[in-house]
Design goal:
single chain; 224 residues; mainly alpha; 13 helices
Length: 224
């Protein structure tokens, strides 16, 4: 029929890659709530039918956009000779990608079996044997690292989104630490000791320390 023929021609004028690219542009500029098929059609100057031709629903669109930004990040990971450095580089690539695209971290928290998670798991796991992690500990180590990377990256991105533009990070962290310990002069002695570090810490550096902690524990002999 004529309408079907017109829809097919509009679909041919687009590609799934262009639709995903446009979705990423909307997500980065206005956030996840702004991504609708109507907004996407307006952005692409096309009809919704041409988009549905390629992608069936919004969740699949979010999944495709998430996969795209993480695939790009992992593709840019340079060749490393030292296993520990390789794991850290992969971890930072994911951390920075989610920091730049917070909606991707939010989507992965809702879809933990996304193919991008499998790719991160594979990339990390491939370095564990050369790192000296015992074979029977590699699955648990890869799981711990992947969950840590995605969890911390997602939480860091979520934290950043909650702060109004122009917020002084140090002052905000100092106020947070003060709230945590204000109840009782004798309460939470550990938090009192580290309050200054909370306001001064570097998120990326602290993230890498956590990766190193996991790797150090994974390389220990059983019962060590």
């Amino acid at each position: 029929s004529k309408p079907d023929h017109q829809a097919a021609r509009r679909a041919d004028a687009l590609s799934k890659a262009r639709i995903v690219e446009a979705a990423i542009e909307i997500l980065d500029a206005r956030g996840e709530a702004a991504l609708t098929f109507r907004a996407l059609a307006t952005h692409l100057a096309t009809g919704s039918g041409a988009i549905y031709w390629h992608i069936a629903d919004r969740n699949r669109l979010l999944a495709a956009a998430t996969g795209d930004v993480l695939a790009r990040a992992l593709a840019e990971v340079g060749r490393q000779e030292e296993p520990g450095a390789a794991v850290r580089t992969i971890a930072l690539a994911v951390f920075d990608a989610i920091d730049a695209h917070p909606w991707a971290g939010a989507h992965l928290s809702r879809e933990p079996w996304h193919s991008a998670v499998g790719e991160i798991f594979e990339r990390i796991g491939g370095w564990l044997e050369p790192l000296g992690v015992p074979v029977d500990a590699q699955f648990d180590c890869a799981s711990a690292l992947t969950n840590y990377i995605l969890g911390v990256a997602g939480q860091n991105a979520a934290n950043a989104r909650t702060l109004p533009d122009g917020t002084d990070r140090k002052a905000w962290l100092e106020a947070t630490a003060a709230r945590w310990i204000e109840d009782d002069p004798q309460s939470r002695p550990f938090l009192r000791r580290v309050a200054a570090q909370l306001s001064e810490h570097d998120d990326r550096q602290q993230f890498l320390v956590g990766v190193d902690f996991i790797l150090a524990g994974a390389c220990l002999e059983p019962n060590a």
